[in-house]
Amino acid sequence: MYKNFEDLIKKTRLKGKKEICVAVAEDEAVLKAIKKAEELDLIIPKLFGDEKKINEISKIIELNNYEVINCKDDEESVHEAVRYTSKSTDRILMKGFVNTSIFMRGILDKKNGLMDNRLLSLLAVYELKEYHKLLYCTDSGINTAPNLKQKKEILINAVHIMKDMGFERIKIAALTANEMVNPKIPATVDAKALVDFVKNKEMRECIIEGPIAFDVAFSKKSAEHKKIDSKIAGDVDLIVFPNIETGNALGKSWLHFNKAKWAGIVLGAKNPIILGSRSDTPEIKINSIAIACSII
């Protein structure tokens, strides 16, 4: 649906600005991304953290349109950001310069957190020069070795969000090493079960195939050579990974060898959550903000 992040940002801007709550915002890379996203008319920034430091950095980078909620430490910053975000489903929570464990504790807090009785999962989105559209992938960052029940929840999380982004027919590859169901390779059994799950649930917004190997998923010629009648070969929208190692290695290989651009967003909570690394570039953060804005 979207050719690249530039296309995504352009179309998302038409939906109007979304309020974003940044926990521990006193970081130059974070605030540079916020500045750019605000200039692109994507967001209304609400910054939680050390007011003095936030204002000092904002002055240097010339970020002008924002509101600060002063907090005494990281824990309070996360708590207040989560609490404020939870008051409306139209708000986005973003991790600033804070340890992931502190950030996640705030999200998982039973009283004031953002949990919605669903499994949290990461949706990664890649822009590859060699591919004709953005590629969505899950889960490469939260669930390490998901069982079948968890894979179903991971799939549902991604499908719901992609529908919100405007997808009508999502072409899904339940990725494995080959196309044969083999009890000795549990991922192939799970992939077949995911296909059956989609059919039984009559999820008409999905076209899913699996087990399916990478070459078949992304090449019509490979599918034809293997005599596989595929409706998604060469045009996949979403990859469901068998485990975190596959997703992590494949994603990092694209970033390293293909110079891919990417974004990431946490799904399954009451609100969209941007859980990036403190070392992420402003570009990655902006792309992730755009994804979050596109689904609310």
Task: Give the topology.
Elements: H1 5-13, E1 18-23, H2 28-39, E2 43-49, H3 51-61, E3 67-70, H4 74-85, E4 91-95, H5 100-108, E5 121-127, E6 135-138, H6 148-164, E7 170-175, H7 186-200, E8 206-212, H8 214-217, H9 220-225, E9 238-240, H10 244-257, E10 261-267, E11 273-274, H11 282-294
Parallel strand pairs: 1-2, 1-4, 2-3, 4-11, 6-9, 7-8, 7-9
Antiparallel strand pairs: 5-6, 5-10
Helix pairs in contact: 1-11, 2-3, 2-11, 4-5
What's a concise summary of this model?
The mean pLDDT is 96.
Task: Describe this entry's structure for a reader.
- The structure is a single chain.
- The protein is an alpha/beta fold and 296 residues long.
- The chain has two domains: 5-116 and 269-294, 3-Layer(aba) Sandwich (Rossmann fold); 121-261, Isopropylmalate Dehydrogenase, CATH 3.40.718.
- 41% of the residues lie in helices and 20% in strands.
- The protein has eleven helices and eleven strands.
- Strands 8-7-9-6-5-10 form a six-stranded mixed beta sheet, sandwiched between helices. Strands 3-2-1-4-11 form a five-stranded parallel beta sheet, sandwiched between helices.
- Helix 1 (5-13) packs across helix 11.
- The protein is globular and about 65 Å long.
- It starts with a helix and ends with a helix.
